[in-house]
Design brief:
340 residues, 29 strands, 1 helix, mainly beta, 4% helix, 4-stranded antiparallel beta sheet, 5-stranded mixed beta sheet
């Protein structure tokens, strides 16, 4: 066997590990980092499948403390691919963790240390109708973990009260399908959609919304949006089939604050650093994940500060709030966790 000296050298190399890989038996369609403080010593993530049939899967994956490899903790079935997964924000260490997913409905799953409690809470605003309009995305309110907002192809956004399992508000947000929704703080949220607009809403006065950005004519759908975690004046959005990422300063609407170039194929995902107001990560079909500094933004930034090339089209990027030095990306059946 290895001498103690060799073993400690190997251990410190493992401790300095810069990348973790995990391969699922299916294409990874959605993923999320657990936000619980006690998981900070060992990464815990949820990944969702894209299988072209009714029964899909959600798998919980965690770093094994002995082997330093990512291992499956548990797996459970999910109707249709989950369009988004999120863990409860700011979960205190005492309570059971919760996981939310969207697809045909919004579901809240209770998660123990090594299993998922069967039969999730299903939130449905339209129990009279057989038909349900698929949900494209959702966001869990950081300031008020009792609140989730969902977006739907039926042009609406819905705000849910989780304790009561009821919708408190449903509003027509766009002229066409809504593709994403995100909270800036307790009361302010924004949505993007197929009509090419990014709209700002305030829960205290929902009679009107503000259009803070519209894609150039003819309008291209906006697919995703993400709020800057440290400076809520900034929001990022991406356009369908576009290699550019748009950064908007909501104090100066309509004109982008910055555009991020450099990708050579469509951008699929965007994630702000959890602990810095000027860093953002984008991922693309060009197989690259790029980290940008928008601190001294001219109108167009073409030089990222870090670049990582994967083996396939990267369709997801998530930056961990519990581990600000780690970003995870997904392509095909693989997930990679990268140290930044």
């Amino acid at each position: 066997g290895a001498s103690r000296g060799e073993a400690s050298v190997m251990a410190s190399a493992q401790a300095r590990k810069e990348i973790y890989n995990y391969e699922a038996p299916w294409v990874i369609f959605s993923m999320a980092w657990s936000q619980r403080p006690e998981h900070s010593s060992r990464f815990r993530l949820a990944i969702g499948s894209f299988i072209e049939e009714y029964t899909n899967k959600i798998r919980l994956v965690q770093r094994d403390s002995d082997s330093h490899q990512l291992k499956m903790v548990t797996e459970f079935s999910h109707p249709y691919p989950a369009t988004k997964i999120m863990w409860q924000p700011n979960a205190a260490s005492s309570e059971t963790d919760r996981l939310a997913t969207t697809g045909d409905y919004l579901r809240i799953w209770k998660v123990t240390e090594d299993s998922v409690v069967p039969s999730p809470t299903l939130l449905n605003n339209n129990s009279k109708s057989e038909y349900c309009a698929p949900l494209t995305s959702f966001d869990w309110n950081d300031t008020d973990p009792n609140m989730i907002g969902t977006s739907s192809i039926d042009t609406t956004c819905t705000i849910w009260d989780l304790e009561k399992s009821v919708a408190t508000t449903q509003l027509i947000a766009h002229d066409k399908e809504v593709y994403d929704i995100a909270f800036a703080n307790k009361n302010i949220f924004a949505s993007v959609g197929a009509d090419g607009s990014l709209r700002l809403f305030d829960l205290r006065s929902l009679e009107h919304s503000t259009i803070v950005y519209e894609s150039p004519y003819p309008p291209q759908p906006l697919l995703r949006l993400a709020w800057n975690k440290q400076d809520p004046n900034f929001v990022a959005t991406i356009l369908t089939d576009s290699p550019r990422t748009i950064i908007i300063d909501v104090r100066m609407p309509s004109l982008p604050y910055a555009e991020l170039g450099a990708h050579t194929a469509s951008v699929n995902g965007v994630a702000w650093a959890p602990n810095s107001s000027c860093h953002i990560c984008t991922c693309s079909d060009d197989r690259s994940a790029l980290i940008w500094d928008i601190g001294s933004a001219p109108t167009t930034i073409n030089d990222p500060i870090l670049a990582y090339n994967a083996e396939g089209h990267i369709n997801q990027v998530q930056w961990s709030a519990a581990h600000p030095l780690w970003v995870t990306i997904a392509f095909d059946r693989k997930m990679e966790i990268l140290r930044v």
